[in-house]
């Protein structure tokens, strides 16, 4: 299996423009769920973080299994190298991501970590092209860069040291890996399969890390507010966000879906206001507008195809490709 980046459009996608619109809506909604992490982050600063994350993913595993059973879906059993791709999703996007955030927080201000994650759209637009030795679509690359600039404006700058920069780069790589490693298996396993398998794998890994880092009895010290926060993380930031995100990646391709990661800092700012935080300053509003412009630019790229390109695509054998070019979420 290889990682390629081809966005379905009206000529190759059986869902046509409606499928693209639905994918865009799901990507935006999924990233809003990730941005809502701000609603609970302040309540779990004193909790045993890895034990709490293990509990979160354990609950999410049960919920995902229940949704699959109730909906009557049949998830194919992973085979061969699919186990490796799923393990990479769990290790990078769920386990190492959380380790990186925790370690980075000791050396860098939150804005530094946010800026690192804001670079994900550019990384997602470039990596598949490097893997296939192809040229990235100029419009998509420009759109990704604009989204990144907008997200940086929203997040602002922050103080850090060399270790903080290193951990922030790890967070960036892990955030991208959450999508890139899922691309080769999305076609056969689907959003539900990738979500379920990666989550239970992460549960086991974080449970081991939690015992080693937080102590064997850490779970007994979780407070009621910690459990409530874990339930929120499991339901909203894991189950809902994962399913919406991976469905969007399957419809849009990871490169285009990655544009919507710029929604995370914007939604976090809006939710912060709803929870009583101060009204964002001018740079936040400017950054939000830049993010929106970048997303619009990236989504508008296929509309500028020539008639010759469109007719060639329609004449080619039709098949869906799950693509790659990107939340931990």
Q: In terms of topology, how is this protein built?
A:
Layout: H1 16-35, H2 38-41, H3 49-71, H4 82-105, H5 110-118, H6 120-132, H7 138-155, H8 162-180, H9 183-213, H10 224-252, H11 254-257, H12 263-274, H13 282-299, H14 307-315
H/E element sequence: HHHHHHHHHHHHHH
Residue windows where pLDDT falls under 50 for at least 5 positions: 5-15, 302-329
> How much helicity do the residues have?
over 70%
Q: How many separate domains?
A: 1
Radius of gyration: 19 Å
Distance separating the two termini: 25 Å
What is the tally of beta strands? 0
Give the count of helical stretches: 14
Q: State the secondary-structure class.
A: mainly alpha
Any idea what the shape is? globular
Largest sheet: none
Fraction of residues in β-strands: under 5%
The chain-level mean pLDDT equals: 78
Describe this structure in words.
α1 (16-35) packs across α12, α3 packs antiparallel against α9 and α6 crosses α8 (162-180). The protein has one domain (25-302). Residues 5-15 and 302-329 have low confidence and may be disordered. The protein is globular. It is mainly alpha-helical and 329 residues long. It is built from 14 helices and no strands. It has helices at 16-35, 38-41, 49-71, 82-105, 110-118, 120-132, 138-155, 162-180, 183-213, 224-252, 254-257, 263-274, 282-299, 307-315.
Short description:
It is built from 14 helices and no strands.
């Amino acid at each position: 299996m290889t990682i390629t980046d081809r966005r379905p459009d009206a000529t190759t996608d059986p869902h046509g423009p409606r499928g693209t619109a639905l994918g865009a809506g799901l990507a935006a909604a999924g990233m809003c769920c990730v941005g809502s992490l701000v609603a609970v982050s302040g309540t779990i600063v004193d909790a045993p973080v890895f034990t709490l994350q293990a509990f979160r993913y354990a609950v999410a595993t049960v919920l995902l299994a229940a949704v699959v059973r109730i909906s009557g879906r049949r998830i194919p059993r992973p085979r061969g190298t699919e186990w490796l791709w799923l393990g990479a999703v769990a290790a990078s996007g769920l386990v190492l991501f959380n380790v990186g955030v925790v370690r980075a927080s000791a050396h860098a201000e939150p804005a530094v970590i946010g800026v690192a994650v804001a670079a994900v759209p550019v990384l997602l637009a470039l990596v598949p092209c490097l893997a296939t030795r192809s040229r990235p679509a100029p419009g998509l690359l420009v759109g990704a860069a604009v989204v990144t600039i907008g997200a940086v404006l929203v997040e602002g700058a922050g103080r850090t040291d060399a270790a903080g920069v290193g951990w922030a780069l790890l967070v960036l790589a892990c955030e991208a890996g959450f999508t890139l490693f899922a691309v080769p298996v999305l076609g056969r396993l689907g959003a539900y399969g990738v979500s379920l398998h990666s989550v239970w794998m992460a549960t086991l890994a974080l449970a081991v890390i939690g015992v080693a880092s937080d102590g064997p009895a850490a779970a007994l010290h979780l407070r009621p507010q910690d459990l409530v926060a874990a339930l929120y993380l499991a339901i909203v930031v894991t189950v809902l966000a994962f399913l919406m995100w991976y469905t969007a990646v399957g419809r849009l391709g990871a490169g285009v879906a990655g544009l919507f990661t710029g929604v995370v800092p914007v939604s976090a700012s809006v939710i912060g206001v709803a929870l009583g935080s101060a009204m964002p300053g001018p740079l936040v509003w400017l950054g939000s507008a830049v993010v929106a412009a970048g997303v619009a630019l990236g989504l508008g790229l296929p509309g500028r195809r020539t008639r010759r390109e469109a007719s060639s695509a329609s004449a080619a054998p039709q098949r869906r490709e799950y693509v790659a070019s990107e939340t931990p979420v």
